[in-house]
Structure formats: C-alpha cells, structure tokens
Design goal:
The structure is a single chain. This protein has a single domain, classed as Vaccinia Virus protein VP39 (Rossmann fold). Helix content is 36%, strand content 24%. The chain is built from three helices and four strands. A two-stranded antiparallel ribbon has the order 1-2. A two-stranded parallel ribbon has the order 3-4.
Length: 86
Amino acid sequence: MKNTLHLEPLGKKINIYVSASYCFGEDAVLLAWFSAPKNKWKLADLCSGCGIIPLLWCRDHHDCQVDAIELQAEAARIARLSASYN
C-alpha cells in the first residue's frame, strides 16, 4: 500500500499533511487545547509526529514561539511540509 500524503483542515485556514502512518486523533486535539499556552510563552513539543499540536498552538496563539521536535525522519518531513504550507 502506498503511503500518500493528503491535507486535513484544522479550521481558521490552517491545514496539516497526514498519511496512513503519520496522522492524529481526537486525543491530540484535546491535548493541544488542555495545554494551551499563555501569552508570549516559548514552547517545545517533543515527539511531535505530524506536528498537530504545534500547528494548533500556533493557530490559536500567534504570540508564542513553538519548536516541534521529532526524531523519525518521515514524521519530521511531514511536519515541516505542514509548517511550510501554512
């Protein structure tokens, strides 16, 4: 089976690339909401996967600095694509 990328809308004109191997679920969306940053925070998301949590933080909190850290090369590539797209 080919592992193709496609865009998923996150609302507010933000989209994320996902694949069959690197996607996200409701738990990631809830975690991003429960861990919402305060004004001007500097944040790091460890094991970022496809980058869903940093993208949601940036979507909702423009004045925060967010670093997404991912060791798996393919997941990091997908997260970079999503960040570049938005």
